[in-house]
């Protein structure tokens, strides 16, 4: 009988440790229990606000200009008081999202998972994590949100699953050469005793991409591939079971009213079966595990599944590619509808850099007629208030380090200006929860960090938990109305000084970032110039100087952002529509965006 060995991947040595099969823990049964919370969301803690009209629920092109709000469930709102956000909390706060004016919610993975990587290690796609609720409650949430004009987008992670998934446990138990192992990338090691890893591919979380198993007799076994953590074994997309299962997963959730799927690490799933090393300078389609030509067959099949359903069921790709032509291939009419625009999100606070990124983005999308997406941050990215306040305001995982100084006052001005700039661009807009409150990145004590990026970096990188801290809703002290009681702390601690960032406080302040976002979304929808996403290039540039990013949308609307150190005079206009900060004697201050009637 096997003896279970517990491996602490946080403190694992650099050399891959043998992987022992976990104790039997089969895929959980589909959850169908009635939720513990009432069918009608509890709005007693939600400040009242005028409802904003959403796009018509039956609009087949809603996704082309939608405002989509990202919910990281663990940190949005806690409905049962245990310190962890859940679906009951989201249901209770749907009126808040309605008042904000969003068209859809994108949920990070809410499935059954050991949470080794924040839920991106999925154990069962047809079950909700017990801390978050039940499948029945997810169905209610989808329905209740839709009744408010808010659609639901879920996350699917095709590159890998959890090492606790029934498939992987079967593969470990079956042993080398078994059909069960063909769903993954098991491989003998190199060298006389198989002690050397099959390839030197680098993990997205730093370190090796291979972990060795242990045979039932205690001897070292085969290695398995994981581009992320050892708890996330990569799937073999050459296997028909893998393709069939994921198409069934799409149908499972589309049948429950989901309007779209966000595809995590969408360019990674297909590997070269020969397992070559990564070339020094791979050409198009030559990388052994990134952007393989064969990957497009997967997404054509997924699009066919989405098109089986009445109305628009949207595929949104997380596609990190520098090659514009290769990126555009994912957006052909028979593949994805849209893909995240990471180029814009990672640029520094610079008129030249951001204009160049906008031009690249529109040029990439124009030949295929797909709308651009605009994103300032997400659950992986340093929050804009903190990032834009730094001397180096661009973003790269390699520069996310402890103790990096930031000017939060400057960062807040720039984050507000960036939000208004993004809101004026043609296409769809994504908002990460808390950015509408102007939350800064939280400095967390090392002992509470859970993100595997921190541990895989040897403790050098603080990881991504600083942007995943539970939201503040009301009150002067933690947990700021998040929903916990005195017996439970929030799963990540909230900074003590966040009372000015609560929804309650900002709802009462006409100058707050929350009110700016509400006004921006309402105005974006109400003005025909901004609501339209069609046309090439979608905007006309206005030349107002090297430190100014200005453009016209349609016949009557202009957006102007001042990146320079001094106020600038505005061109002749018919009035101010909206501004991220007050004008100074009619001039536009530094780090400010204004929308003008022209």
What does this structure look like?
- There is one protein chain.
- The chain is α/β, with parallel strands linked by helices and 598 residues long.
- It has three domains: 62-158 and 240-521, Glycosidases (TIM Barrel, Alpha-Beta Barrel); 163-225, Oligo-1,6-glucosidase, Domain 2 (Oligo-1,6-glucosidase, domain 2); 541-597, Golgi alpha-mannosidase II (Immunoglobulin-like).
- The protein has 15 helices and 21 strands.
- The protein has an eight-stranded parallel β-sheet with strand order 12-11-10-6-3-2-14-13. A five-stranded antiparallel β-sheet has the order 15-16-17-21-19.
- The model is unreliable at 1-55 (pLDDT under 50).
Structural class, by secondary structure, is alpha/beta
Which strand-content bin applies to the residues?
5-15%
Number of domains: 3
Number of helices: 15
CATH architecture field of the largest domain: Alpha-Beta Barrel
Shape: globular
CATH class of the largest domain: Alpha Beta
Helix content: 10-25%
CATH topology of the largest domain: TIM Barrel
Major sheet: order of its strands? 12-11-10-6-3-2-14-13
How far apart are the first and last residues' alpha carbons, in Å? 77 Å
β-strand number: 21
List keywords for this structure.
single chain; 598 residues; alpha/beta; TIM Barrel; Oligo-1,6-glucosidase, domain 2; Immunoglobulin-like; 3 domains; eight-stranded parallel beta sheet; five-stranded antiparallel beta sheet; 21 strands; 14% strand; disordered N terminus
